[in-house]
Sequence to fold (674 residues):
Amino acid sequence: MMWYQTGTCLAMATAPAALSGAALAADPPPDAAAVNKAFEALKSFDWGTDQKLLKPIDDAVMAAHSNAALQRELEPRLAAVLKTGASRDAKDFVCRKLMLIGTAASVPVLAELLADNDHSHMARYALERIPAPEAASALRDALPKLSGSLKIGVIGSLGVRRDAASVSALASLLSDADAKIASAAMCALGDTGNSEAARALSACTKKASKEVHPALADALLVTAERLLADGKKAEAIAIYKSLGGEDQPKLIRLAATHGLLVAAGKKE
Amino acid sequence: MSRVIQTTRRDFLKKASLTVAAPYVITTAALGAQGRPPASQRIVMAGIGIGNMGSGDQKSFTGRRDVQYVAVCDVRKQVGEAAKGRVDRHYKNHDCKVYHDFRDVLARPDIDAVHVATPDHWHALIVIAACRAGKDVYCQKPETRTLREGPLMIAAARRYSRVVSGGSQRVLEDYRKTVDQCWGGELGTIKSINVNVGPLSQPCNLPAEPVPPGMDWDMWLGPAPWAPYNHSRCDGNYSTGGNSWRSYRDYSGGGMTDWGAHHFGGATFAVDVRELQPVEVVYNNQQGKEFLTYRYPTGLLLYHNHPGMQNLQVVGTPGEKRPPKAVPTYKGHGGIYGDFLYCVKTREKPFRDIERAVNTIVLAHMGIIAYDLKRSLRWDRAKQEFTGDEVANRMLDRARRQPWQL
Fold:
């Protein structure tokens, strides 16, 4: 915690890469005393509190993007707030900042919030955007411990991350007794959109309940688009053909036909 | 449900059978009297989000003879009831249905098209759900709240062959002189254009107030982070000064996206780059005056808030004349609404096709990120991500509150 303990201000470690000879502004270095004061204010921060009190933390987070030492100092300090009795609003603020500068180091404390009704979303707010693979692992590992809406949220975040390592975990949810969870898993696999996801989705077409048919068809169409974009034309065409039968609603049959035309280069 | 999907006709009929069947009378209006197309040839429409912009859109669509407007949806009971009253007075009946959950509107197989004028944080989710339900969509601007949403909306529209129009009528109508000068060739090769618009939205930390009767607050928030009700957090007025949802980052990009959809849209139309996206945005700071320079693959520069330049000020090539090009315009009649309805019938792309609308609003979102980070960014259109900037890429999207997912 050197920079704020010593009260000195760290200059930016590296200047942002200049594009096209643009003039760039150097962020004013964070004032350590002001940041300390802001962390103190965070302890009693709640809805209605003047948010200017937290601005030094905002500024420090922005400066941390190009200052590794500052980032290393700031991240654990923010994460520590999540273990305190700070208000929901204060913890929301912290999750928003960790979304921007969080690393694998923050994942454990964020993961602990995934089962908390008040904090699960904002924990995902950070975890969904932290690129470290540990963030995806934490989301995946939380699945068996969750149910209902919170589980659906985590499934969705894995889909947004297109996490290939989560395909088998998501596939195991395709026959979940809760149709909303099964549908969410279908959508997440569609977002992931690789060959393994396609196989998992295709394998459940015959046994899927009618309630989840629309989600399954949409997920297969999305998967086919992603496979096509990845150059796996034969796999995409196989999916489109599987959705062209009379057992499918007209809208899905039309979408499958459209997909075949796209695959053939006859449509955009 | 993590993602909104279409309800089957059977599901709808199952629900409908639970209600008391009303006798159906074939009226002269249904048969097409008074110059109206017969009911079977009208576009059956509903409105989702019927506040300030939504009520204006509703008026425009109900005024069309080729539209049968059948339902309104709003999370505020009084707003929904008032909208129903306007529709019923127009048709002189009591037929308009009121919903507070848009999924119930999309589940109706008789509805062909919807217009969406919710706060911005709902747009993508509802538009994509509507496409999955087989509806055509007229969506108010700004069409997206994050950069990730745009390509998903375009993909859904194309996947289900839906007509999806963005909602800025000003793109074609407000900047006509500039458009005519540029397309007419009299300015020569266009080198740059400037857009003045703002401000950026801010975080919101307003105190809790009692939720008014009739307001479904959880549904108003939808995919946005939970926060307590406060009238200034959700007011639909056009201010960006702190007493409306347009002021706040969770729901809007502020003036940058709101009026930005108009001005950026007008600028990119005038200089004919509406099919393109920039390859980089350069952050400039000259003695504390921040402005942006977007660079297009054609070499054209689009400035945001360039010091000393007027809104939509164009720099061409003095002494050069270019061959004039025909200015694209709306199809059908009746402005942007007529254009949308014409395309619903013909299945053509509307003037503000969702892809063009997204190409516009990308500028605003990229600009917000560049201003936030105070640095220049390179944009890879094919990958829809910033090149070599992990932090900027974190800002492409944000997790949606459960159970909502795109």
